[in-house]
Amino acid sequence: MKWLPILDMETGTIASNLAIHLVHLGHEEAAFALLDILPTPPTGSKEEAAGIGSFLLREAVVADRPLSTVVKLCDRLMADGRNTLALTKIAHVCLGTERVESSLVVFKAMLERGLKLRPHYFWPIFLTNARLLGEKGVFYTIQHMTDLGVALDFDTLAHYVLPHVSLADPPMLVRKLQGCGMTVGALLTPVLATLLRQGRVGPAGKLCTYKIYLVAYMHIHTTAAAVPCENQLDNKLCHIDVKSIPEKISCSKSSGEEHNTGIGTQVVNNWNS
């Protein structure tokens, strides 16, 4: 490096391109050393906003360089304040390029460094694994979430788990999800919501033997509701007795309150409002 000229912004661009080329040739250590002497991007520039070294981190991931080496570079960039989001950046690249295993390795590195993992970080992995591996891939992802200490939330269950698993036997599905460490209380609301959205009142009724309360933020119009709910105003918290669902649905049907869109659809739309 001592033989290189003092770099300005023009020659710095040439050096950046050289660093990228070195990464793709398998010489990432040399590329990272070159990064240390690149000029600091101007204040307010796109390069500064993206974080110093982000371009090289992306190239290292895309070139499938060893993640252990890439993570070490992230540590250096974060330690001296040049790129405090370096690990998050490579996680984004891994997810965007469907590198599932690499994403999980980076997530573990983030956790080890005290960075909080959130359920939505796993959404791209759910979609990729569901497409490639089906239901098995979904449960594989859930297991990794659990291992990393991240709990499934309502949105993850409703939009990234349940659409990609079999709902033919709802009680069996609940038991399988319980085996992944979830409680019935956390499961029942999204499972029932999904079944009712599909107009599958019968299968939903099979889950009404559990002695728990559903919790939802929703408006429910009494003429379209499949479940009774008190304190419906202002989207306040309501508690719904699971056992009352079949009885209320039966009453609604006999009163001719089920419209073409289906009671379940209307109820769940209200839950999501």
From TrEMBL:
<dbReference type="GO" id="GO:0005739">
    <property type="term" value="C:mitochondrion"/>
</dbReference>
<dbReference type="GO" id="GO:0003730">
    <property type="term" value="F:mRNA 3'-UTR binding"/>
</dbReference>
<protein>
    <submittedName>
        <fullName>Uncharacterized protein</fullName>
    </submittedName>
</protein>
<dbReference type="GO" id="GO:0005634">
    <property type="term" value="C:nucleus"/>
</dbReference>
<dbReference type="GO" id="GO:0070129">
    <property type="term" value="P:regulation of mitochondrial translation"/>
</dbReference>
<dbReference type="InterPro" id="IPR033490">
    <property type="entry name" value="LRP130"/>
</dbReference>
